[in-house]
Amino acid sequence: MPPLYPLPIPGRVTVGQTGTAALWNSQINPGANFLGNRPYAWLIQNTVQSIGSGYVPIAFDSGFDNAGAHSATVNNTQYFCQLPGVYHVTGQVGIYPTPSNPGSYPWAELSIGTNGSSTGGLIGPVRMYFDTNTTYRSGGIVQISTYLTMSAGDFIQLFVTSAVAAGLTTGQGYYSSRMYIQWVST
After folding, report:
1. Which residues make beta-bridge pairs with 57?
2. For residues 145 and 94, what is the distance between their CA atoms, to the nearest angstrom?
3. What pLDDT, on a 0 to 100 scale, did the predictor assign at position 129?
4. Could you write out the DSSP letters of every residue in 74-92?
5. Fold for domain 39-185?
6. How many Cβ atoms from other residues are within 10 Å of residue 33's Cβ?
7. Numbered ranges of CATH 2.60.120.40 in the chain
8. Which of 106, 112, 121 is nearest to 162 (CA)?
9. Is the pLDDT of residue 2 over 60?
10. Nearest CA to 63 among 94, 82, 42, 78?
């Protein structure tokens, strides 16, 4: 895993100054290192999770994180901001309905929350309705994307809620829940 480089200080040169190895190493190289290794993560849920009523944070148990901002075993629903700035966040949840009432058309909502907020300050929600054909057990994937301004120590979570109290689970494989996080700018 490449190192997470600090945000570089903008280079300063004067008119007529010639390029030297020392100038390159002190002014240009830190910016190139940072841009090639800015904080990003893609988190995946491999373990099926039951979705009931209320806002449920999605637990991520695998993926890649070059900033060490997510743990698959401790607070596995949270991505902690290591570098302040603007982040592009995309979350998706795959849902399998197991309808107990074939005419009810259940739905699920997906939202992105910061610092544990599952009620106020959510981005979203995006709602998805399911066909309740029990023969095909059709499911679906809902996705949401946004930009968030984060401070060091803030955390991001992906929340899902449903119109039915029971009978929905997150998917696996193609239907796996995922969250992508990438630092964009200060």
Report:
1. 159
2. 15
3. 66
4. SSTT-EE-SS-EEEEEEEE
5. Jelly Rolls (2.60.120)
6. 16
7. 39-185
8. 106
9. no
10. 42
